[in-house]
Amino acid sequence: MKYGFLGAGHLASAVVFGLIKAGVQPDDIFVNSPASARSLADKTGIHYAEEKQLIGDSDLIVLAFLPEQLKKIIQHLPADCFQNKLIISFLGSTSLDELQKSLPAAEIVRSLPNVNAEFDRSLTSIIFGSTISEKSKQLVKDFFNKIGSFVELPEKDFPAFSAIAGSGPAFVALFAQSLQKAAINQGIDPETALTISLKTLEGSTENLLSRQLLPNDLIKAVASPGGSTADGIVSFEKDDFANIVNRAILATINHGTK
Ligand SMILES: NC(=O)C1=CN([C@@H]2O[C@H](COP(=O)(O)OP(=O)(O)OC[C@H]3O[C@@H](n4cnc5c(N)ncnc54)[C@H](OP(=O)(O)O)[C@@H]3O)[C@@H](O)[C@H]2O)C=CC1
Ligand SMILES: O=C(O)[C@@H]1CCC=N1
């Protein structure tokens, strides 16, 4: 099985590292982009390839460039080079319909992984195009199982999924940074403050997942009656924390409507 990546940016790099950790041979991965592809190839042992060769030789082609680059990239390639090719798009805001119109002869999958793919932790949403075969569907599922897990979603849910799972790592990092700043404000040195923040996030997520707790159960378990955590929760609620998060998710979803 040969994999070809058009684009070598943050998401492509995370997925390439994830595939290699899952046992894919670097020799079986090809990458092309104007600048970064060669350094990704040097770092990982995968191969740089010219676009046409990459498309011709790959069993599965990943579109990992920015949505606005789609038309330009397709236009300068021969019209028939994507004939019967299996293509997975990572393009955040590009609909399945748009992809199928741009690449009518290909088998298309729209997907939204996230950068946690590097550690086998991407929950990816997928939607299969109308012309995709059962065999190709299985190849796609195998691909996403190598970098985490996947969920099949209707297209209407992609914007919300993108805002929460795709953009989410950035929002979690923002919360981590806020916890770190709060610790620094209390006189703790920045490095220790970051460790405290990250280890607390890591342990709390593990706690929720492994004990299959609802978030409110963990809140109750930590906020001892009459204790200090309850005062912190009241302060968050006064500042409308849930709405702050909801507004940020809406702003993310509404990006394309500006
Ligand atoms: N980052 C994330 O967490 C997520 C990103 N996405 C989607 O993934 C896609 C990539 O995002 P991200 O990795 O963040 O973006 P980056 O800006 O990090 O990477 C974009 C890549 O596109 C490449 N590129 C530009 N022109 C071409 C071309 N002609 N042929 C091939 N490659 C080209 C760039 O190459 P070069 O560097 O050589 O100029 C670069 O490697 C986007 O569509 C985004 O919506 C989806 C979910 C999460
Ligand atoms: O910021 C973006 O546009 C992409 C889509 C989801 C995460 N990153």
TrEMBL record:
Instruction: Cite the InterPro entries for this sequence.
Output: 6-PGluconate_DH-like_C_sf, NAD(P)-bd_dom_sf, P5C_Rdtase_cat_N, P5CR-like_CS, P5CR_dimer, Pyrroline-COOH_reductase
Q: Where do the Pyrroline-5-carboxylate reductase dimerisation domain residues begin and end?
A: 155-255
Gene Ontology MF annotations: pyrroline-5-carboxylate reductase activity
Q: Which EC number(s) does the record attach to this protein?
A: 1.5.1.2
Q: Which residues form the Pyrroline-5-carboxylate reductase catalytic N-terminal domain?
A: 2-90
Q: Which reaction does it catalyse?
A: L-proline + NADP(+) = (S)-1-pyrroline-5-carboxylate + NADPH + 2 H(+); L-proline + NAD(+) = (S)-1-pyrroline-5-carboxylate + NADH + 2 H(+)
Task: Name the enzyme group at the top EC level.
Answer: oxidoreductase
Q: Does the keyword Cell membrane apply?
A: no
Pfam entry (one)? F420_oxidored
Task: Write the protein's name.
Answer: Pyrroline-5-carboxylate reductase
Please give the organism.
Answer: Oenococcus sicerae
